[in-house]
Amino acid sequence: MSMMDRHDTGHSPENQRALPGKMPIQPDSDSLMISFLLTLNILAPFLEYPPDALIVIDSAGTIILVNTQMETLFGYDHDELIGRPVDLLLPEHLRTAHVAHWTHYMQAPRARPMGIGLDLVGQRKDGSRFFVEISLRPIRIEHTLHVIGAIRDMTAQREAERERMLISRRLRQQDKLLSMSHDAILVRDSADHIVSWNEGAEHLYGWTEEEAVGNITHTLLQARFPISREAVDYTLEQHGQWEGELTHTCQDGRQVIVESRQALVRDEQGFPAAILEINRDVTERRRLERLEREARAEIDARLHVLQVILDHLPSSVFLVQGPQLRILLANQAATEIWGAPWSRGQPEEEFIQQHGASLYTPTGQPLPLEDMTGRRAMDSGKPVLNCQLVIRQSDGASIPVIVDAIPLEHRSLLPSLPQEMTLGPASAERVVLVVYRNVRALKEAEELKDQFISLATHELRTPVTIIAGYADRLLSRAAQEKGHALDEWQREKVQQMKHASWHLANLTGELLDVTRMQAGQFQLERRPTDLVALTRQEIERLQATTDKHQLAFHTTVAQLWALVDAFRIEQILSNLLSNAIKYSPGGGLIEVTLEEHKDTHEAHFRIRDQGMGIPHAQQAHLFGRFVRGENVRIAGIRGTGLGLYLCRELIERHGGHISFESEEGVGSTFFFSLPCTEAVYRNSSGKAL
């Protein structure tokens, strides 16, 4: 029975749901229904042959026939589909739109793909979704319009298309990157003809891609190999790759050195198909490396000469870096004075502990590591000069030394410090030059001199005291008009004799102090002292001796107590203030400042004048004995050169430090510190003093 010869009698949903894979004929149906069902039974087997899922739908969008592929694709049993609306196979959010599309299609049905340009989606029974492709074709069954649909699962195809798109995108990106690369990237065939030439190759060699393609690489670039070309080809054949440096000649005649990486590509049969060559221009790098090698050789030669010079110096010279004072450089004398070599990079504290060495003050007190000269210069960034110390080696031998430490952080004193000498970035840590001078021979000579001075001082002290006493008595008797009267000339001369005698007595007193210090017989008589009151008293005493100078005292504390020898602190202030007065012949302001540093429990003094200043050449030796500035000698200002030496000794014996800043013609500022007592002194009323 032909489908096109039958009348459209319609069919109920009940009849549709009863249709099996091969629909049985209902014995009680009328002839038209029987004809329709027979037609479907005839049509059903043919739906099984195509590989696609097939579905037959009536004009109302109801499923009336499906094949096995359709059931498998969507996961429904046959009976779950027959008689159900076709939008069952769609996601819920697309069902409303589908009704409109179906109505529009049925108005002019024709064979065509459905949803051209759209991403069609089906929904399985388990709710999973997948891309589909649908083709529709109208058919008439017993004169009734139906639509047969072929549905194909596009998941694998879509995935393949996506993968192809990704590969295509990657290839385009790679091609773009290869083109943009600064390296010269070229591909040559098995006969060494250039088949690909990127922009990097154009920039490096000068030939465009059109000019280069087809040429033999080695001929075009006049390549020079570090080994034979045959050896390079053999390495490529055996290992599939080769790396090395080549010399190429560019289009303009320039020669360039390239770092070449070559890889052999084989075809599916394993035969050589192409060679990928990546060349990087290292001409400038090799030039800089050559210059660096030459500079390094020159630096090494200079360092060798410097080391030879340093090794011939009698003084021990160290160059240390950073807070731990790690050694950068040391000469031969340094090994001798410490009794052991100081390894490069070794910290100072570790070296001293490892070799059993120790440092002492001239009075025999152990020197704390934080008070070592190099560390003080490293921490403060200021030179520390003429520090007298004693090195005691591990075998018990003692060596008296004078230490100078000069920080070199500004590099003006240390031009072009080689990187090989530093232990880190050149500007990261401070570098200090430390010089130890062995003064054992000088000490022995000084001991003889001190013995002579001590003897002479003792012998002079008595007659000087007698002369001064008699001069004073003569002046006193003359003033009382007892005995013979003195005329004006005689009184003047006796007065001069009195001043000269007392000056000589002061000199002998200073010399006695010096000899006692050198002999280790000097003792401090410490007692609680208010430094504010003592300083104010000494300023008032010295202000009375001059009309041209104004002595000003600045402090923010009412009292500041310290356990000190008050007489010696007066001696320190007297020497420093007298120098400020004496070396400011034009007069002017002299400022004294006293501050309390509670965090370190120290009293800090500052004495500033506007006088002659100290010549730079004499500043390093200013605290030595009998040392005076050349400018004061020329000016005819008298002095012994012992005052600052005694100040330093007295301050350091109290546990303090002294330093100064000075500029010739501008003035000088002296700084010194004294440790304060932590005890709180109270008066009888119980109030804190």
Plain-language structure description:
Residues 455-678 form the Histidine kinase domain. One of its GO terms (molecular function) is phosphorelay sensor kinase activity. It is an enzyme of class 2 (transferase). This is histidine kinase. It is built from 21 helices and 24 strands. Mean pLDDT is 80; it is low at 1-29, 412-416 and 679-689. The protein folds into 5 domains: 3-159, Beta-Lactamase, CATH 3.30.450.20; 181-281, PAS domain (Beta-Lactamase, 2-Layer Sandwich), CATH 3.30.450; 313-437, 2-Layer Sandwich (Beta-Lactamase), CATH 3.30.450; 444-519; 527-675, Histidine kinase-like ATPase, C-terminal domain (Heat Shock Protein 90, 2-Layer Sandwich). By secondary structure, the chain is an alpha+beta fold. The strands form 5 sheets. Strands 1, 2, 3, 4, 5 and 6 form a 6-stranded antiparallel beta sheet that branches. The chain is 39% helix and 25% strand. α17 runs parallel beside α18 and α18 (566-582) runs antiparallel to α21.
